[in-house]
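anyone seen this seq b4? input:
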Amino acid sequence: MEEQDYGVAPEMPYSTNADKASIIERINPDEIVELIRMRLMGKMQDRGTGKWTTNNALKDNAISEVGAWDITNLILSISNANTSLSKLDDKTIRKRAYGVMEKAVAMMLCNWREYKITNTAQLGYISEIVFSITFITLKMADAEGIRKMITSMYSENRNISELSSTKSGKKMFRKI
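predicted toks r here
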């Protein structure tokens, strides 16, 4: 029988550290928090220019800039890469999400004039936004989901890299 030479497994075309950094970068919530902030102020982004302009249809339910900043800063305290990479259980997640939502409602009630809260519907939809983004972000940390994914990617890449470096020059697969 003729022996086929499949050679050594190729090196990974990307760096392990770059992959971990890329995943962590993608978790960065600044973009969505900025979008929420601007929408709370009744603004829409012009697709052509990228500039934010006030939407007349939304301005009646919009809150003030101070209110939008306060609410999104509260969201940002939870919605970050560190939280996503944490190890949290369901009970802790639910308790924390409700706590953040309660704080947002308390802030809106205490500062209703400054935030330009004019009706109960504003309280409702803002509290839903706060709860949803907080809960979703915290759920990413449930059972170490993202942490385990990054660790397994790192481990897999490291094993492949080590295998290819120890086998360089030797045949890895041979047909017998």
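The radius of gyration is 24 Å. The first strand starts at residue 43 and ends at 45. kinda curious what u guys think
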